[in-house]
Write a sequence for this structure.
């Protein structure tokens, strides 16, 4: 009898397992994939970041270094080695989780898990044999899967999902990306840097839905400068195979004449949906709404002893959100006050430049009728950014007009994903723009732009 069985070994599940083991619980994790780490480590965050970094280096070597006095003669792409770097990175990470499981005495059970009854998980192994495990509590951490484009079949060769786009055997001359969200723009960036002409088709009239409108607008312009072609307010009505590639019929969402675009590869990146197949949830009576497992503030479903975390429940589909929920549910089960502050979960787009945000957007604040003040600071006025020739972008801090409490931070710029942490810590402690403005940042660093944007909330930035 286990204290806890977790179904799914993604960042939600494996982190929950480690925290529960630290708290003295006897834990098993059921995972149907051969390796641990879930979508994130195997086919998501980690491999995409390995390719984003390597392709950024390729592009820098090709175009970015001469003004620094570093002359590189026409760099050559060795795609096989780049893919090996990605695969090695994935292997190091998934093996790292296996080591942590051993260290924390967590039982790793391979197979597909189904909840037969509260406290009972049936695991079907690769050989078809089933075994039943028992536990006091069960956590569903089964994550998400690629959302399919209606009427378009993904073959992972010419019509690919993010998974296929992480392993293309050669650089496509032309790539259509369907969906201008994070995954589409990140993987579109990888292949554009390696030589593909990238056309992005997006249903909405903007990129990065959900992110701050001003940030999205500026970033849209930057991507166009990099060579991305956008068809915003358009949908892909049809994708047909043609020769060795594909022909996509693209129509304006407002109606009117469509057009066809030919490409070597189409990447369908319209989003992800919670994965709850074959879990037995319907028979068990677990409430599901819009595909998501319904949980309360303590991650409990409506069935006693069954909890859920990560992509399979509401909230942003982000690895660190799943991890924090994993910790919270383990601590709750141990009688502690597990808690996740959804108001301070950062979100990063790992393009160049990077985009990072935490908290409310200006659009959110307007919709909620909250009076706020804005402070902005451009990286073009930051010494370190100039020294590194990374002057594109800006920092924007949104603070409550009455209390000065920071409600949101938005950064477009080199290293934005690291810089956002300062704002996230501040927000976690309910800090004000004044607190941020009075924090001493080392000079010269990009983080000085965060401080200056906080000063700008009170119209007293020094360097603009
Ligand atoms: C290309 C790409 C890039 C991404 N980049 C980022 C990023 O940079 N940052 C970020 O925060 N997020 C990123 N994400 C999102 C991130 O991967 C997810 O938010 C995260 O993995 C969710 O974690 P999870 O634990 O909820 O589920 P998952 O990681 O999806 O893990 C669920 C696991 O459950 C297993 N499972 C499912 N059903 C069963 C069953 N019945 N029995 C046994 N096992 C089962 C699955 O095999 C899977 O391994 C990216 C996603 C993709 C696709």
């Amino acid at each position: 009898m286990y204290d806890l069985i977790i179904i799914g070994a993604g960042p939600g599940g494996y982190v929950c397992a480690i925290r529960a083991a630290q708290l003295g619980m006897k834990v098993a994790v059921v995972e149907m994939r051969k390796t641990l780490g879930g979508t994130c480590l195997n086919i998501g965050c980690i491999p995409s970041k390995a390719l984003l970094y390597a392709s950024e280096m390729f592009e820098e070597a090709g175009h970015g270094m001469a003004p620094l006095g570093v002359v590189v003669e026409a760099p050559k792409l060795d795609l096989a080695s780049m893919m090996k770097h990605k695969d090695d990175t994935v292997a190091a990470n998934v093996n790292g989780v296996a080591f942590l499981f051993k260290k924390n005495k967590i039982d790793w059970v391979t197979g597909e898990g189904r909840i037969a009854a509260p406290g009972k998980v049936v695991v079907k192994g690769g050989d078809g044999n089933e075994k039943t495990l028992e536990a006091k509590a069960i956590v569903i951490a089964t994550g998400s899967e690629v959302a399919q484009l209606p009427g378009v079949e993904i073959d992972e060769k010419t019509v690919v999902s993010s998974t296929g786009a992480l392993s293309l055997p050669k650089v496509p001359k032309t790539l259509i990306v369907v969906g201008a969200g994070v995954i589409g723009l990140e993987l579109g960036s990888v292949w554009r840097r390696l030589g593909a002409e990238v056309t992005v088709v997006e249903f909405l009239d903007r990129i990065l839905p959900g992110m701050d409108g001003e940030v999205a607008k500026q970033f849209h312009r930057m991507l166009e400068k990099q060579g991305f072609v956008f068809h915003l307010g358009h949908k892909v009505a049809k994708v047909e195979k043609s020769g060795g590639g594909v022909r996509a019929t693209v129509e304006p969402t407002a109606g009117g004449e469509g057009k066809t675009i030919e490409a070597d590869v189409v990447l369908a990146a319209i989003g992800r949906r919670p994965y709850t197949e074959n879990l037995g949830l319907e028979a068990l009576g677990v409430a599901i709404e819009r595909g998501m497992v319904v949980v309360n503030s303590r991650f409990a479903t409506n069935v006693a002893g069954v909890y859920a975390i990560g992509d399979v429940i509401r909230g942003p589909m982000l690895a660190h959100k799943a991890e924090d929920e994993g910790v919270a549910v383990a601590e709750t089960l141990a009688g502690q006050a597990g808690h996740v502050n959804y108001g301070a979960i950062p979100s990063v787009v790992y393009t160049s430049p990077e985009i990072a945000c935490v908290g409310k957007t200006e659009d959110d604040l307007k919709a909620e009728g909250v009076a706020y003040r804005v402070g902005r600071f451009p990286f073009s006025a930051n010494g370190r950014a100039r020294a590194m020739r990374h002057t594109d972008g800006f920092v924007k801090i949104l603070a409550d007009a009455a209390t000065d409490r920071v409600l949101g931070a938005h950064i477009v710029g080199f290293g934005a994903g690291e810089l956002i942490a300062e704002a996230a810590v501040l927000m976690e402690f309910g800090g004000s723009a004044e607190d941020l403005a009075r924090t001493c940042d080392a000079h010269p660093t990009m983080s000085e732009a965060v401080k200056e944007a906080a000063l700008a909330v009170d119209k007293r930035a020094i360097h603009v």
